[in-house]
Amino acid sequence: MSQEFSTILLAAVGAVLFVGGLLFFLRPSWLLGWLKGMAVFGIMAIGAYLLVIALNLYDYQSLSGMQTVASVSTQEQGDQRWGVAFELVGQEPVVASLRGDQWQVDARIIRFTGPLRWLGIGPAYRLERLGGRYTSLEQERSNPRSVIGLNDAVWVDLWELDRQFDLPFVEGVYGNATFMPMRDGAVFDVRLSGSGLVAVPANEEAHKAVQYW
Fold first, then answer.
1. Does residue 93 sit in helix, strand or coil?
2. In the β-sheet with 94-99, what is the strand arrangement from edge to edge?
3. Cβ-contact 97, 83 below 8 angstroms
4. What is the signed CA dihedral for 100, 104, 105, 109, rounded to 10 degrees?
5. pLDDT digits over 145-192, tens only?
6. Which sequence ranges are marked TM in the entry (predicted)?
7. Distance between CA 55 and CA 73 in Å, rounded?
8. CB 133 within 8 A of CB 100
């Protein structure tokens, strides 16, 4: 396509759009109807967005400052095989088996900005899974991984939507606790803030596990 033809085509499209815009303004009823329609769609979109936020706040738990959200205790069951009790604050523990030498907890954190923050909506979190890991790279590559799910999937997950579409006034953060060693009889507290997870020893066996790790 020659530059001359491209220029003519561009001018023709520009002229059509300009004249169409003038005709649009010459008939104010069209403009008024269009503005009403756009306003209605805008209100519906805002309402749907706020509804998704509200539904996710129901599934996520509120977070204020650094707080202990769970505890993890480990019992040796065999060679690199551990019974793990994961207990959320105020709930019955989830008991399962993990393979490996270390464990880690993953969480999804949602932070709010702008008008949502002005309304007093604080960060919210959702613990996702508890997983095991081998210290040996060869075992980590070849041996089966063991993961315990801590929550069911959310139908419309605000965290996922923000990661894909960068939603306004919402920030989805992925938090995980540093891998901690497995030890028979050890208990760790899992603490969470708006920036992520931290695991700290809660008894003597856990302190020894970290000390000699």
1. coil
2. 94-99, 81-88, 67-78, 186-193, 196-201
3. yes
4. -140
5. 889 888 877 778 888 888 888 989 899 888 887 789 999 999 999 998
6. 7-26, 38-58
7. 32
8. yes
